């Protein structure tokens, strides 16, 4: 369980986040929605210890410590190291922990259809392939907390659907508390169990009405158009306040 209590972040004299409190269960995905500049990336950075903040963040009851806990962050640009091959990028979290990497890396490359690309460098990959490498690197060390910061946003709609399915398959294999920052309403409804809407630095938690359906079925559900319309309306009301 991830527990964020009374978290606040200020840059210079501007308060970006204030009194942000929520939990993410051990097998839960929370989508974080909010207008540009509201503080979504700031929230992710504060949670994983890259941003000074007030309040507390604990994972399984212990204060977050990236040295002791296995955190995985997939940033919007995927954060791949250009001088490492696909296989070396994917194995990085294991090597940083001095863990044997080969077998796990090969298995993860296979699971995400990346085996033929193992020796390529990121510059020689398409956007969708880079995104799969980033997911492979996030999942390879079986993280205890997974943070995705607009990790699907650069993909075209067709590749996105494939990426959601691959993400779902890997996540189901080793679920962990997960935050998915997104601008995309469909992504929020397809991937999440609950939604956290940020407005003026404050969080509003909402249920995902499609959460009981398997992720692959959500956009095809008869209720999907209505749920999407309701979500747009509810979020717009929060942002208008
Ligand atoms: N290091 C920094 N110093 C000062 N201000 C910052 C810093 N980083 C971010 N900000 C400001 O804090 C606010 C929140 O930024 P943040 O990147 O968290 O927003 P966001 O919701 O992720 O936006 P987007 O959806 O556009 O990525 C913005 O107004 C931004 O300009």
From TrEMBL:
Domain of life here? Bacteria
Quote the Pfam families the UniProt record gives: ABC_tran (PF00005)
Q: Show the stretches that span the lipid bilayer.
A: none
Question: What Gene Ontology molecular-function terms does this entry list?
Answer: ATP binding
Q: What are the UniProt keywords, alphabetically?
A: ATP-binding, Nucleotide-binding, Transport
The ABC transporter domain is annotated at 2-225
Instruction: Extract the InterPro entries matched here.
Output: AAA+_ATPase, ABC_SmlMolc_Importer, ABC_transporter-like_ATP-bd, ABC_transporter-like_CS, P-loop_NTPase
The record's PANTHER family line, in alphabetical order, gives: BICARBONATE TRANSPORT ATP-BINDING PROTEIN CMPC, SPERMIDINE/PUTRESCINE IMPORT ATP-BINDING PROTEIN POTA
What is the protein name stated in its UniProt record?
Answer: ABC transporter ATP-binding protein
Q: What is this organism's lineage?
A: Bacteria, Bacillati, Bacillota, Bacilli, Lactobacillales
């Amino acid at each position: 369980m991830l527990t964020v209590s009374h978290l606040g972040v200020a840059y210079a004299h501007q308060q970006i986040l204030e009194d942000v409190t929520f939990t993410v269960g051990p097998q839960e995905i929370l989508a974080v929605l909010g207008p540009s500049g509201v503080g979504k990336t700031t929230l992710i950075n504060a949670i994983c210890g890259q941003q000074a903040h007030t309040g507390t963040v604990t994972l399984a009851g212990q204060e977050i410590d990236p040295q002791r806990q296995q955190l995985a962050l997939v940033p919007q640009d995927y954060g791949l190291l250009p001088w490492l091959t696909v296989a070396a990028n994917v194995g990085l979290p294991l090597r940083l922990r001095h863990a044997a990497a080969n077998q796990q890396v090969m298995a993860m490359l296979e699971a995400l259809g990346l085996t033929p690309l193992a020796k390529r460098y990121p510059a020689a990959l398409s956007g969708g392939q880079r995104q799969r490498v980033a997911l492979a690197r996030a999942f390879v060390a079986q993280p205890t907390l997974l943070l995705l910061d607009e990790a699907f946003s650069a993909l075209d709609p067709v590749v996105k659907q494939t990426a959601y399915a691959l993400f779902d398959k890997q996540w189901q294999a080793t679920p962990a508390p997960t935050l998915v920052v997104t601008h995309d309403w469909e992504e929020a409804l397809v991937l999440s169990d609950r939604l956290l809407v940020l407005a003026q630095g404050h969080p509003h938690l909402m249920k995902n009405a499609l959460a009981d359906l398997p992720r692959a079925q959500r956009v095809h559900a008869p209720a999907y158009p209505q749920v999407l319309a309701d979500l747009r309306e509810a979020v717009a009301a929060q942002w208008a306040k």
